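Cross-posting from the chemistry board since nobody answered there.

I work mostly on the small-molecule side, so proteins are not my area. We synthesized calcium ion and want a rough idea of how it might sit in this target. Sequence and SMILES are below. Is it possible to get a predicted 3D structure of the two together?
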Amino acid sequence: MTRLIRSTLLTLLVLVPICALAQSKGRIYDSFDEMTKALHELQSRYGDIVHLESLGKTSGGRDIWVVGLRKGDPAEPRAMLIVGGVEPTQIAGSNLALQAIEYFASQYGKIDGITQLLEKMTIYVIPRASPDATEAFFEKPQKERSVNQRPTDDDRDGLTDEDDVEDLNGDGVITFMRVEDPQGEWMVHPDDPRILRKANLAKNERGAYALYTEGVDNDKDEQWNEDPRGGVNFNKNFTFNYDYFTKESGVYQVSEPEARAVADFVFAHPAISVIVSFSPNDNLMKPWKSDPRAGSSEDGRGVVNSVTKEDEQYYQFIGKNFQEMTGFKDAPPPEKGHGAFSEWAYYHAGRWSFSTFPWWAPEITSQRDTSGRRGTSGGSGPRPGREDDQEDESAMMVRTLRWYDAAGLSEVFVPWRAYAHADFAGKTVEIGGLKPFALSNPPPDSLAGRAQAFNEFFADLAGKLPSVALRNLETKTLRSGVYRITVDVVNEGYFPTNSALGHRLRWVRDIAVTLDLAKGQSLASGVARQVLDPIAGNGSAVTISWVVVAPPGSALSIRAESPASGTSTQRVNLR
Ligand SMILES: [Ca+2]
Ligand SMILES: [Ca+2]
Ligand SMILES: [Ca+2]
Ligand SMILES: [Ca+2]
């Protein structure tokens, strides 16, 4: 008895702080198995809202999960899609996508706006688009790997996966090796001696180091770790602006099961009009601009590789809205995609496509001047050049380390320590540098506030989807048994019923208006079924009229519908 009480007490003592911790800390970074368990738990807890489905399996045997969030069977199929883990090294994006599922499922019935959304439409979430690649976060030794596990001859020497990295210093993480070399391209960063950056020869700088990932030259070809295990990067495997015969892009477009599954899902769901993803191909912090020289020609010919003039204003507005709602600033420069998912989603699948980095270290301004404790790298040097280095990843690293320092998280950096490396006999080799994943994934508890900002943005965006309605129905008797019927087809959402590019691509369906005649009725003027050009949002309308010959007292119906804009019907009684 006493033992039972003691063990219960012990359990309570142990459990209570963990629960409290779990609540205040938000989500941990889940391994694939943990994420799968969490999704099933959400499904059993919110069974009427969370609809879990697998889109198929990766070559590593992992499911590509999708969750449909909706209450019951909505009358309209309108939908938005959120995708995390597009860039597999950004596990923070996968975490935020999971938090979005939790948010919408748990706030249904609590927040009116969320309740209404989930009763009118579906929010789909693919929390981890490339689960095989993302699993590298949980493997030992930990190394940053953006590719899946498909064996691939990255350096095209006829051998496959013959030179992977090694954890030489045995600290459980793969970092970097710097080798003193007067002909090396790299120098110590003037703003932070822990970081290296490429020497700018035009500015009279001189390199002092060669830089490699940690490991040995397994195949003795004087290149280090040039063909690691795997693979193909999900975010380089899509059809738009695809790089053939390039590292990580795959043997052909959409060659990977995970890319194929996600692309098929999008094509099978024409109701999805908006796709938001977490990736480095940001267009929320830096919205796309139309470039008239880049092929989006007025005559509609040639390959489109710049947002169209008509669609640009919507990207600009949503980006501005995102920045105002979240208060985010100082984002790293967007990466131009090559076979990238988010660009494919607009340019080839014709949907409104928004993307941003899940996390980046904000600028630390005040601490820097007051602490001054980092000696040479302290307060007096130039700021990491806003103009000069903006494109430079090393400037981002300096800023990131500064953020970790301010948060008291110095363990993200492995101090450079000498290592006797047989491949570099007679040279000074040091192993160290920023730990894998640190640049884009903070400790998960610091994502909580960010998750809330993203969730509010997602809800706002979902409320902006196009929505068709038939209004101002008028029936006029021209003479006995002959009627003129007039109706406005109105778009009550924010987004147009189709983007200009979606209209051009023809993948995305425009609104069809059908006049359903009953027996004994005939059409004297007008078209029984017509497909409309895109209708702009916020109450814009197209007026349609017909002349119908029908027995007085009969009835007919009008229907306007597209998968992305929903359905509206009106019954017309002819007197
Ligand atoms: Ca090879
Ligand atoms: Ca390989
Ligand atoms: Ca190591
Ligand atoms: Ca090698």
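Reply from a structural biologist on the board:
Welcome over. Reading the output above for you: The two ends are 84 Å apart (CA to CA). Confidence is low (pLDDT under 50) at residues 1-25, 367-391. Happy to explain the token format if needed.
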